[in-house]
Design a protein that fits this description.
This protein is of the alpha+beta class. The protein has six helices and 19 strands. It starts with 6 loop residues before the first strand and ends in an 8-residue tail after the last strand. The structure holds flavin-adenine dinucleotide (FAD). The site of flavin-adenine dinucleotide has 32 residues, from β3, α3, β8 and β14.
């Protein structure tokens, strides 16, 4: 068996690995050294199943009972960006989207600017078809690399996937290890840096920053905005335990470290019920709720 070179830890509280900052633990957490090491881990008897793939945890609510099996975090080991020329960029799945946006901005690849607003990894952006300011991840993807549950690597083209709004399907039981993006080249790097700064300042004006949250809680229903529906149902500022609906942006649930996952989940349910009663619209969570309930309750 190939010797594993990554970092394996048992019973790891996940608060510092998710932007929601709640404490449900991972039974095992593995951070592979690189793509080959990732394949070796997945294929090994050391790896407890099931697997859960973690980016920067910016779209996740891990329940208080935590995640069974192996959580695989790519951010440390799968971190390379390679310029293939003419706007083609090969990126490992663990790279932070904001880093890729800055890197592309310096080379004049302006279509990558939207990635600056996504506080996750490239792997998470591929899994979610993350988007902002009119840009979407898969609009720029040429091909992806994946690993399957036996540790085998695959290369797939964008055409192998069905892509929708925050929704990606195709190649089940495979997870992203990287992508080749094809960005139109020829932008002015200085103008792009200034544009990025403006976009981020606009975001800081309209969304809560410096406080724990999982980003937009609900998907926007067709032709409307979840935030508008929540606000007009009178839910801004409403609390469950330590969590509350942000006063700045009603589609964010925030807390200052005192909320449990069950507080946040209870608030999600309450918002769904209230919005349905007021507007007749059932909101669907965008944030992914995973893991086990605590048996004794909260
Ligand atoms: C303040 C804030 C602002 C946000 N703004 C936006 C925005 O403007 N637009 C937007 O689209 N999103 C936004 N988000 C949500 C989030 O950043 C995106 O969904 C992001 O793509 C998640 O990436 P991640 O690496 O953090 O994934 P995680 O949250 O770690 O995981 C999300 C899902 O992707 C899966 N996944 C992760 N990595 C892989 C992989 N390598 N292979 C297969 N599956 C994988 C996970 O299993 C999980 O199901 C925001 C979040 C926050 C906290």
């Amino acid at each position: 068996m190939t010797a594993l070179r990554g970092r394996l830890r048992e019973s790891v509280p996940m608060a510092r690995y998710t932007t929601c900052r709640v404490v449900g633990p991972a039974e095992w957490l593995y951070e592979p050294a690189d793509a080959a090491d990732l394949g070796a881990f997945v294929a090994s008897d050391t790896a407890a199943r099931p697997f859960f793939w973690l980016g920067l945890g910016s779209n996740l609510l891990i329940r208080d009972g935590g995640l069974r099996g192996s959580v695989i975090r790519l951010h440390r080991g799968l971190a390379a960006i390679t310029d293939l020329g003419n706007g083609r960029v090969q990126v490992d799945a663990g790279v932070a989207c904001a880093k890729l946006a800055r890197w592309c901005g310096q080379r004049g690849y302006g279509e990558a600017a939207f990635l600056a607003g996504i506080p996750g990894t490239v792997g998470g952006a591929l899994a979610m078809n993350a988007g902002a300011w009119g840009g979407e991840t898969w609009a720029q993807v040429e091909s992806v690399t994946t690993v399957d549950q036996h540790g085998e690597q695959h290369q797939r083209s964008a055409a192998d996937y069905d892509i929708g709004y925050r929704d990606v399907s195709g190649a089940p039981d495979e997870w992203f290890t990287g992508a080749i993006f094809a960005f139109p080249s020829g932008g002015d790097p200085q103008a792009l840096q200034a544009h990025l700064r403006e976009l981020l300042a606009e975001r800081a004006r309209t969304q809560p920053t410096g406080i724990a949250s999982g980003g937009s809680v609900f998907r926007n229903p067709p032709g409307d905005h979840a935030a508008r529906l929540i606000e007009s149902a009178g839910l801004k500022g409403v609390r469950e335990g330590g969590a509350w609906v942000s006063e700045k942006h009603a589609n964010f649930i925030v807390h200052r470290g005192e909320a449990s996952a069950s507080d946040i989940e209870a608030l999600i349910t309450r918002i769904q019920q209230q919005v349905e009663t007021t507007h007749g619209v059932r909101l669907t969570p965008e944030v992914r709720i995973v893991g086990e309930e605590v048996a004794s309750g909260h």
